[in-house]
Amino acid sequence: MQTLEKLLSRFAKGTDARWWIGKRPDARDGQLAKIIAGQVGLPTSTDDPFARDGMVRLDRANAARVLAVAGTTSLAYTETSPRSGALMEAKSALNDLHEDATFLSNGHWQEGGSRSWNPLTTATFDCGLIGFDGEHAFIFWIEEED
What we know:
Layout: H1 2-12, E1 18-23, H2 29-38, E2 56-58, H3 60-72, H4 84-94, E3 102-105, E4 125-132, E5 136-144
Antiparallel strand pairs: 1-5, 2-3, 3-4, 4-5
Helix pairs in contact: 1-3, 1-4, 3-4
């Protein structure tokens, strides 16, 4: 998990990112993502996105894209297109988790696609990634105001 931890730390530098990485909490699968989010005090939104299936399950490639978007772009003022180097780094870092890892976000954040999401925070914009496998878990979440 060293590669992922270093990347999350670097992405968080100079931002208001909330992040945590560690041992997978003991929880039922239906509650696991919410417990991981709770490691950084989320959700703070008035609607609980975990209660209404507001989280989107992503494959590894899309999870890397969301992580790179959250870590390197402005959600309010730029196109959600991360630097290619950041995307490659995110793909590599996610390999710290086993092949059967689960990745969740609050939207897809695709280039040129619709920008709709289910907020986890009270910020104008928020985006991030929750990931876990049988042993490890992490969250990286960014909030931004316009």
